[in-house]
Specification:
Layout: E1 2-6, E2 14-15, E3 18-19, H1 21-38, E4 42-45, H2 57-72, E5 76-79, H3 87-99, E6 102-104, E7 116-120, E8 127-133, H4 141-144, H5 149-153, H6 158-171, E9 178-184, E10 186-187, E11 206-207, E12 218-222, E13 228-229, E14 237-239, E15 255-261, E16 269-275, E17 281-286, H7 288-293, E18 300-305, H8 314-319
Parallel strand pairs: 1-4, 4-5, 5-6, 8-9, 9-12, 10-11, 12-14, 17-18
Antiparallel strand pairs: 1-15, 2-3, 7-8, 13-14, 15-16
Length: 321
């Protein structure tokens, strides 16, 4: 089977109050085109679909339109909320989305009660089981997993608690199927992209790579914005990364999604597919004369001006270049 792993869309993100909707439209068009050209069996959206919990009408329109376009291609679409999303809001619309062929798993659920979804190949040759792990804060872990009675009662620390959940999910894997995990979490040792909320990538939120199940064909991760493999994992695991450079912390980063191919009994292979529809972010510096001659292209710029003293109106002068 073939899967498209994406996430960290952050639709609705602005830069200094300027809308970036045209960029999000462009990169999501690319994702639909990749899903179509690759004939993927399923699309996995690993959280942070939105940038804010209070969602604009334009952001909603673009997200739902994209999910429907992906479903119309004949691919299963599975999504989970990240820390930027309103899980309660997505859960409220999940029954409607399910009727349209889109599964949103918005809270931790036992394997037999919606925590693991089964997806069939287009040709009917095999199936995949996808364990879905939405973002959970360490402060709310016990509440989030109260349906897992043993895990909730035995909760000691976040890392161990997530490890217990992963063991429960992996115990429900099927050797005859393709077994996947999709989670929005911070794996210890992963390299942040530069624009994540720092509190959610600290030690309190860290999960050891060794907790990931070695029996999984692939682990599809969201939360870290820099595309990367989890090198210490006992199975293939990757962060797909964000779709555009979200702020100057991500300047220069190349963006991509991941195409995953797997068959029962063999580890998955992965391939990064570039995404290019977002505008770049760049730092430039120099005197006013230097900046006037600079080739700035279409990038967003963070400008440092070298001056000999106070220069009234300098911001307006720079914006006029």
């Amino acid at each position: 089977m073939k899967f498209l792993h994406t996430g960290d869309w952050h639709v609705g993100r602005t830069i200094r109050g300027r809308s970036r909707l045209d960029e999000f439209e462009a990169v999501l068009d690319e994702i639909v085109a990749i899903a179509r050209d690759e004939q993927v069996d399923a699309v996995m959206i690993a959280g942070d679909v939105y940038d804010q919990r209070a969602v604009t009408a334009d952001a909603d329109r673009l997200v739902f339109e994209t999910m429907l376009r992906l479903s119309d291609l004949g691919a299963a679409v599975i999504g989970i909320p990240g820390n930027h999303d309103s899980a309660a809001r997505l859960e409220a619309i999940a029954p409607l989305m399910k009727r349209l062929g889109i599964d949103l798993v918005c809270r931790m659920l036992p394997p037999g009660d919606g925590g693991i979804l089964e997806v069939g190949a287009r040709d009917g040759s095999t199936t995949a089981r996808v364990a879905c792990m939405p973002f959970v804060s360490p402060r709310r872990f016990s509440d989030a997993v109260q349906v897992f009675e043993d895990t909730a009662k035995g909760y000691v620390d976040f890392d161990a608690g997530v490890g217990d959940l992963l063991r429960i999910y992996s115990a429900a894997f099927d050797d005859r199927a393709i077994n996947l995990v999709m989670g929005h979490m911070f794996i210890h040792g992963s390299q942040p992209g530069g624009s994540e909320r720092e509190v959610t990538i600290g030690e309190d939120y860290a999960v050891s790579a060794s907790r990931l199940p070695g029996t999984a064909h692939y682990v599809a991760l969201g939360h870290i914005h820099k595309p990367q493999a989890v090198r210490a994992a006992p199975c293939p695991a990757r962060y797909c990364g964000s779709l555009i450079q979200l702020d100057c912390g991500e300047r220069g980063q190349k963006k991509s999604v991941v195409v995953v191919e797997a068959t029962p009994g063999r580890k998955a292979t992965t391939r990064q597919v570039p995404i290019s529809g977002g505008r770049g972010l760049r730092d430039i510096s120099g005197t006013l004369a230097d900046l006037e001659r600079a080739d700035v292209g279409d990038d967003y710029l963070r400008v440092t001006v070298e001056v000999d003293g106070p220069t009234p109106g300098i911001a307006e002068v720079v914006r006029g270049f």
